Amino acid sequence: xxxxCLLIIYLCLxxxxxxQVSKTxxxxxxxxxxxxxxxxxxxxxxxxxxxxxxxxxxFKTMRDRMPKLEEIDLAQVNIAEYxxxxxTDGFFTTYSKDGIPPFAFDESEHMENVRLKSIVLPPTTxxxxxxxxxRCNKLESFTMPPSIISIGxxxxxxxxxxxxxSLPSTLESISxxxxxxxxxxxxxxxxxxxxxxxxxxxxxxxxxxxxNKNECVLYVPYHRKEAYQSLEFKNIVEMxxxxxxxxxxxxxxxxxxTKTIELVGNIKWSAVSDQPWLTVSPTSGNxxxxxTITAEAxxxxxxxxxxxxxxxxxxxxxxxxxxxxxxxxxxxxxxxxSLIFNCYPNPFTQQVAIEIQNPKHIKFTVDIYNIxxxxxxxxxxxxxxxxxxxxxxxxxxxxxKVNPGIYICKxxxxxxxxxxxxxx
Length: 424
What we know:
The protein is mostly beta strands. It has five helices and 34 strands. A five-stranded parallel β-sheet has the order 1-2-3-7-9, covered by helices on one side. It is elongated, with a radius of gyration of 28 Å.
C-alpha cells in the first residue's frame, strides 16, 4: 500500500512538472524579475507574460534561470536602458532603451535548454541586438513590431523552425548573417520601398545565406519588384497596393474647375475629400483608374486647402494635398505669385512632359530622384523662364535607361511623384 501511494505521488508530481505552467508578472522595478519568482516557479514556468518595465537583467533571468520557458508575451512592457555587468553579454555594457539586448535568448551556450517557441515583443521595440535569438531553433512564431529600425548580426541565425518573417517599412538596416541558415523559411514579407541597408563586415556575406531562394517567396510592396531583385530570390511577388501620380494638386478658382490624377494599382480602394467644396470621382475602384477632382467656385481672395485620402484594406493610406486658387482683382493670386508645374502623362512609358509656369521669373532648379532619395538626373539649373517645357525620357545623368518604378520630380521645394510603368 505504501509503495502504491508513493508511486501515485511520484506520478502526480511528474505530471505537474510536465504540465504547462503559466504566469503573469507585473515588474514594477526593472531588473527585479528573478526576485519576484520562487525557485520552483523559475524552474517550471513555460508560459510567461510580463507587465511593467524590464531591462537586460530580466532578459538574462529568462534565458538562464527559466529552463522550461517556451512562450513569452512582452506586449505590455517597456524596455529600459541599463548599464552594468548583470546583463546578457556578461561584461559591463550599456543596453539601449527599447532594444532587445544582444544575446537575449542566445541558445549557443545553453543547447540543453533550447525551448523558446514564440515571443511577442513590445510595440515600441526599435532594435534587436546581435545574436538575440541565435540558434533558437524551436522558435516558430515571431511578429516584428512596426517600430523596428535595425536588426543585429546573427540575430535569427539558425532559427530552423521559422517559416515566415515580416520586415516592417521602418526597418533601415540589417547586419550580417541575420537570417542565415533559416532553412525553414517559406515566406518573407518586406514592407519597405527598398531592401534594408546591408551592414556587412566582409564582402562575401549576406543576411539570407542558405535560405532556399528557389522555393521561399519574397513578398514586396506594389511596384517595387525591381528594387528587390538584388536579393536574388527566384519568386518575388508584389503585394496588393497602389501608387498615385501626384501628391500636390493645384486647381483653379472658377466653379467646376477640375484636375485629374492617375492611380496605378492592383487592389480595391476608396477615396474621400475632407472638404464639401471638393468632390472626387470615382470614389472607389479596383485597380488602376483616372481620378477627377472637381471644385466649387472659390469667391474669396485666399487660397483654400483640401485633402483627398485614398484607402485600401491592409495598407497605409495615401493623401493628396489640393490647393485651390483664390480670386484677386479677377486674376488668380496663386498664378501671380507661385511656381506651378505639371507632369503628364503620368504614369508614363517612354517620356513624361514637365511644364512649369513661373509668372514672377523665380529662379528654379528641376531634378529627378529615385524613391531612395538618390539624384538620377538634373533637368534645369537656376532657370527663370516664365514658361518652360521639359521632358524626361527615363534615363539617368549618363544616358542609361532606368528601371521601371516610382521617381520624384523636384522643383525647388515642390515635388511630384512620377510612375514609370513599363520597361523600354
